[in-house]
Amino acid sequence: MSLQGKVALVTGAASGIGEQCARKLAADGAAVVIADLNLVNAQKVADDIVASGGKALAVAMDVTNEDAVNAGIEEAVAKLGSIDVLVSNAGIQIVNPIEDYAFADWKKMLAIHLDGAFLTTKAAIKHMYADGKGGSIIYMGSVHSHEASKLKSAYVTAKHGLLGLARVVAKEGGSRGVRANVVCPGFVRTPLVDKQIPEQAKALGISEAQVVKDVMLKETVDGEFTTIDDVANTVAFLAGFGSAALTGQSIVVSHGWFMQ
Ligand code: NAD
Fold it and tell me: What Pfam families does the database record attribute to this sequence (predicted)?
């Protein structure tokens, strides 16, 4: 579906899933805003998209900071004219059993995943409403929006929370053309997952190969990782979908790990 003339802002777009979402949305014709804590890498992604004929802008943004979020969205609108698509994707992972889970880590996790989703939605939706064109908001959930795993109290709580936020935004935005959905990937080999493999091996007392086979991919239908392309293609589909038939939904992209 063509996104020609649309502006899409992707948070956490300097790496992994967010980066591929930005590349795919740009390839489909959108001007993309690469919003990330890491401005150096965000700029590299933006330069690369521009070099291949796309339109991209790198913006420094800490999604937990209201002023930074508002400034980034305002800069994007000032330079590109609007926000039609928001992909709230920035995220980190901290694994630990709950009895050892530091309260500071819990708060950091909820701040990035939930405050970030709330703040970017609040700042972007005003523009979607104001120009009367509506828009598409996509939250990066996870199979952990539906399932639980050991060691992931904060992550599972936050990812479940995004389902609630998306449903409220879908109801509030419905009459004004704003759709909100959650994409829920299984395990994808990105820096976020590569970091977890040795950590989980240590915490669970098993080998790294066992973490991959028996923890991460055990419930898939084919023992395969989900890819960044699988996720980016789903995001692009939701971004370009033409009606509110698809709103308030979660789409699970996980090689059958979770079936709803
Ligand atoms: P990644 O580590 O490759 O990329 C995350 C990006 O987010 C980085 O560029 C980082 O700089 C940025 N970021 C971190 N904190 C930020 C903040 N406060 N403000 C702005 N940017 C910030 O990770 P990824 O695997 O691509 O994960 C992206 C999203 O996908 C996350 O929400 C994650 O929970 C979700 N997800 C990942 C997987 C997976 O298996 N990799 C599965 C399901 C869901």
Answer: adh_short
Q: What are phi and psi of 147, to 5 degrees?
A: -120, 160
Which ligand 1 atom is the nearest neighbour of the CA of 225? 40
Query: How would you classify residue 25: left for phi > 0, otherwise alpha for psi between -120 and 50, otherwise beta?
Result: alpha
Structural domains in the chain plus CATH codes: 7-187+227-253 (3.40.50.720), 189-225 (no CATH)
pLDDT digits (tens, 9 = 90+) for 187-245: 999 998 999 899 989 999 999 999 999 999 999 999 999 999 999 999 999 999 989 99
Cα dist from 128 to 31, 33, 66, 189, whole Å: 16, 16, 18, 33
**Full-model pTM:** 0.97
Question: Is there an atom of ligand 1 within 6 Å of 117 CB?
Answer: no
> Cβ(12) to ligand 1 under 6 A?
yes
Q: Which one of the listed residues 101, 129, 139, 155 is annotated catalytic? A: 155
CB 148 within 8 A of CB 156: yes
- Nearest-CA residue for atom 36 of ligand 1: 142
Could you identify the atom of ligand 1 that is nearest to the CA of residue 112? 18
C-alpha to C-alpha distance for 37 and 59, rounded to whole angstroms: 9
In 3D, which of 39, 61, 192 has the Cα closest to residue 116? Answer: 61
